[in-house]
Amino acid sequence: MRSVRDRRGALCHFSRVPQAMLAIKKLWRGQAAVTQSARRMFSGASVSGKQTDKLGPVTWSSLALAGVVGSGAVYYYQSEKDRLQTQSKSTVTSVGKPMLGGPWTLVDCDTGRAVTDASFRGKLSLLYFGFTHCPDICPNELVRIGDVLDKLEIDKGEVVPLFITVDPKRDTIAQMQAYKVDFHPEFKMLTGTREQVADIAQAYRVYFSKADENDDDDDDYLVDHSIVMYLVGPDGEFLDFFTQNTRVEDIAAKIKMYS
Predict the structure, then answer these.
(1) Which residues are annotated as part of the binding site?
(2) Is 105-258 a domain of CATH 3.40.50.970?
(3) Which of 127, 144, 152 is nearest to 256 (CA)?
(4) Rounded to two decimals, what is the model's pTM?
(5) Most exposed of 115, 127, 177, 210 (fewest Cβ within 10 Å)?
(6) How much is the pLDDT for 64?
């Protein structure tokens, strides 16, 4: 709403500009009429020198007056334009954070029990979506998250890393438990039904799709998915995100700002 009010405020200032332009046009028309009158006067060769002396000063005075007033209007227009441009440059309009996150329910593979977004309130959470059969990208990202945790100079457990599968068909509780041993011990591995996984993926705008949609019975497949880490605050609100190209040092520094 703030950005809308700013634009309306700007429109209120700009409403003065057409008035200035109208005044300038009127002055130009008046100046043109006076100029034409002067031309007709000076073009008459039979006009006596006395008549010329009488009419000449009036004509040039009118031209001078029109020029002064016109210059003032132009100055006002230019000053108002410069002021509005300066105001526009100095005003920062916040578009807010992306609408990401929301309530969700999954299964904690450590306990086999249902957990929700509320289960991790009071701490920062770092979410990553992937699957255990991912050949290289997911393992690399999980290692990077582990490196981030090691760099953070905060109490253990203040940041909870969550690995959320996008392949619930193959990523059972047992599969996720076996996969976890290769990564940082603080990881929470979460799975769920197709519907539950789809819900949280939609909440965070995560894209995922089976690479070969025509072969549903084959368990040997890859899953295309977004490669993004999501930082969620202690109140459950989305704070920031990090891509595959974000350095570990930069991720750790940003998390420290929120801790």
Answers:
(1) 134, 138, 225
(2) no
(3) 152
(4) 0.62
(5) 177
(6) 61
